[in-house]
Amino acid sequence: MSKTGWAWLWFGFLLALDIAIPWFVLTHVEKMSGAFLFWTVWVAVAIISAFVIFLRWKEARQ
Amino acid sequence: MSTTFWVWFGIAIYIAVGLVIAVMARRQLGAGVSEFFLANRRVGGFVSAGTYGATTYSAFMMVGLAGLTYLSGVGALGFELTYLCGMFMMVFFLPRYWLVGRKYGYVSPTELLSDRYQSKWVGATAAILALVFLVPYSAVQLMGVGYLMNGISQGAIPVVAGIIIAVFCAIAWSNIAGMRSVAWTDTFQALIMIVTSAAVLGVVVAALGGFGSFFSKLESAASGLLTVPTAKGAFKLNMFIGMSLPWLFFLISNPQVSQRLFIPKSVMAMKQMLGGFLVFGFIYTLISVLWGFSATLLVPGLVKPDLATPTLLSLPIIPMGLAIIVMIGITAAAISTIDSILLTLSSVWARDIHKGLINPKVSEARELRVGQWVIPIMAIIAFVFAWWAAGKTGLAFMIAPLSSAASAGLLMAVPTIFGAFFWKRATAPGAIVSCIVGAIVVLLFQVTGWKPLGWWPGTWGFIVCVILFIGVSLATKPPREKAEEFIGYLKEKLAEGKFI
Question: pTM higher than 0.80 for the full model?
Fold first, then answer.
């Protein structure tokens, strides 16, 4: 699979977690360490993933 | 002196500084449409990040998202962070928009669609979607400013006065030097937004005994708000998807933000824009949600959750000077979004409706004048909508759901945008039919309040839209030559710049 394909797959996986964990795993955890912490860490992972990809970009000839 | 005096004084200082920045930006203004609407594609990384952040984040955050958190708990955090996770797609779309913008000289994102699909009707359809659905989105910004000034002045400043001030600033800053004045004032406003919101949250958290005490109080006093769905049943999965789906694709569906993908002056500026925005967005989202949670502890039982922020700011624990500065920060957030929307709508009207459909031989100077006239007209329409909606109550008229509903209409352009970049078989009839029918479904469901099987209008509209886009495209003839040339160019340049 191409790098683009892997990146889309990773993004899809992150979105699946967005639903699966808060609604099916943490639904009874009434603490800040539940859904609040999950979403904070989850989006941090998404942001770091984006950094890993775009820091490799270089100037293209116009 | 009274609070009302200091509120007016703060607003006057803010407007004066904004006007000075806009006038300074005008000194660098050159001639032509690309210069006015895109600052000639020569914007540095810092200002690009500032204008992207200030355009994206609006009164919605510290008023609407805080109100939603107050009412519905942690699901509001998930909803907003789903948008930020969707920004991962910038690694695909930012270089693509930027490259083709430079190659073909596109001024508006809708012009890109017209050219790629070889049909002016595709751009015009997307332009009409933007003109229709960005009105409520602009209106909620105005409502936010109105509520805030009214709340902080304890009713001395009417809601409509706040709305008029916001309209005046938005018209002025978008007209003075186009994208250049908007981008510069946006960056100034982004700095105010982040600094003031962090400061006031710090004061509130300190008053609650620090973060540890704040969190334990939340867990004991508002534990029902820390799960999805909440104890009272808010943020069931269908509500979350209904609100988050339009937000997920906000980066391409909203032309006022996708137009900004044309403006960075270099790849380095693009990287700074994206990185700067992601960090800004992460911090600002957490601040807004924690602010909403602090309101649940300090001002429980409000009938109108969108008033959580103004009510909290009027508490004695917040020094009056800080409350006024925060009010200015939120006003800045709203105005920086409205002026960007007005500028984008004016470019969309001038390029895709006036030049595309009405007068294809129009001169560049005349096209620019037409665009500049659209700015006050759209502002007045948004003003009337805001005035009407501000008198309503209920979930549908809260800032966050109303914003999401507006983006649900814009969501109907998303399959067309994906097709332009990734699917050579996509056709103009597929794009037009899917946008129109999808938008009708969304409007119909929103107006009637009908939610079949409990799913929201945007969700149903999007399903219909995707099916129609694929089905009609497969049944009609694509612009093969243009598709090969457009996607082929991108393939070559993406490899050259190590983009993906």
Answer: yes
